[in-house]
Backbone:
């Protein structure tokens, strides 16, 4: 009887020991899975984070395309049309009443008129080419000719001054207070009430060339030469 009880106790102990061993094995496996899972997850996250970084440079490099060098502003900017490209050759004495006009072969371009009071002269440029030049008469001490940049605001072929009641053929108005370019008898020692007088044939040619809005630049002592910009100052 005692022997049977001892055998049962031994079997029970062995059973419990086996159960405990199995439990420990299962617990160890579970911990191993629990510990390894974050590592695998972290590795996945790391791969996701690293792959785009590795691909970004390749995505930004053009493939089978020519490399275009950047062009500087000075190279890409078109040349200004308001630069002196030609000056008329004048061999005759440049005296009062004289003018020269030569637009043969000159390409189309915007008209810019320059007047220099100190030199008592006017130049007409078409796309940078001087097509006309003349000696002028201008404002006297009572009403000097203003300097600056003036757009042509009115054209009148047979204009009569409403201030002085005198003819001003081929009038090109510059200001609202009576300053204009017009045909006049240009003589040494004679002035105007602020207007710019030019020989009549020159005035006619100029009148035919210009349009409203064309600019007249009036300076006092600025001479232009080849390559100079045609600007006020």
Residues:
């Amino acid at each position: 009887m005692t022997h049977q009880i001892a055998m049962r106790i031994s079997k029970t102990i062995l059973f419990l020991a086996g159960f405990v061993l199995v439990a420990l094995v299962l617990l160890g496996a579970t911990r191993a899975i629990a510990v390894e899972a974050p590592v695998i997850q972290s590795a996945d996250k790391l791969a996701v984070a690293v792959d785009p970084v590795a691909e970004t440079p390749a995505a930004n490099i053009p493939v089978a395309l020519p490399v275009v060098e950047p062009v500087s502003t000075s190279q890409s900017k078109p040349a200004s049309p308001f630069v002196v490209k030609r000056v008329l050759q004048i061999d005759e004495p440049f005296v009062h009443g004289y003018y020269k006009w030569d637009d043969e072969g000159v390409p189309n371009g915007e008209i810019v008129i320059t007047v220099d009071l100190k030199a008592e002269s006017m130049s007409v440029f078409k796309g940078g080419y001087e097509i006309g030049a003349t000696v002028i008469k201008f404002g006297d001490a009572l009403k000097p000719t203003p300097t600056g940049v003036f757009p042509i605001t009115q054209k009148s072929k047979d204009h009569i001054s409403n201030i002085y009641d005198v003819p001003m053929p081929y009038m090109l108005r510059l200001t609202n207070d009576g300053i204009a370019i017009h045909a006049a008898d240009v003589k040494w020692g004679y002035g105007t009430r602020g207007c710019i007088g030019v020989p009549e044939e020159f005035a006619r040619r100029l009148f035919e060339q210009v349009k409203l809005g064309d600019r007249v630049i009036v300076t006092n002592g600025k001479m232009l030469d080849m390559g100079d910009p045609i600007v006020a100052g």
